[in-house]
Amino acid sequence: MTNSIRMLSTLGLMGAMRSLSAAFEAASGLRVDADFAPTLALLKRLRSGEAADLVILTREGLDEIIGEGRVIADGAADLARSYVGIAVRAGQTHPDIASEAALRATLLAARSVAYSRLGASGVYFAQLIARMGIAEQINARATIVEQGFTAERLVSGEADLAVQQISELKQVDGIEVVGPVPYELQTPAVFSAGRIATTGNAEAAERLLRYLASPEVVPVLRRSGLEP
Which domain holds residue 197? Predict the structure, then answer.
């Protein structure tokens, strides 16, 4: 067993993982080498042969690569749920997003809405505005973020609203989370972890996986905007 664990994680857990990795390192003496990106980007990297010991993706993404034999099904664990939310720049009036009608009006009134192209939240939002019949109007002036935190576009002044997982919105200073998109309009993303089948560091990866799936981490998940 080496003393370093290579972990690839979806951006949705970035805030929580920074705290949890530090706590795990202090308790175990092992080092966590973490890299964060959207699930679709991580899937592409794994399929191109990038090496890792542990991966955290959306449940759908993890199931895909379990099916491909890249991740071991035994021991894979669901870690947290996350809802998509809306944010504005700090100090701005919080718009009404409490109902589908209110959300629709708020989105149409925005100068620009920032959302991601590769992240689970971006895929969901594209489907949502299509279902609401406003995709053409929103996309005509949307700020599309290839990868990273959409709320950064609020701070830069490029957009009036940012859409992303609440745990990702909270990673950006100078913004305020208005709240979640109405729950009846969304299905929470489930983030799950699994051990890479080809890892040469299985014992250490398994140890980190069991820690991340333990009740001990629940307060940290909640503080970062996630639900265990």
Answer: 4-81+189-223
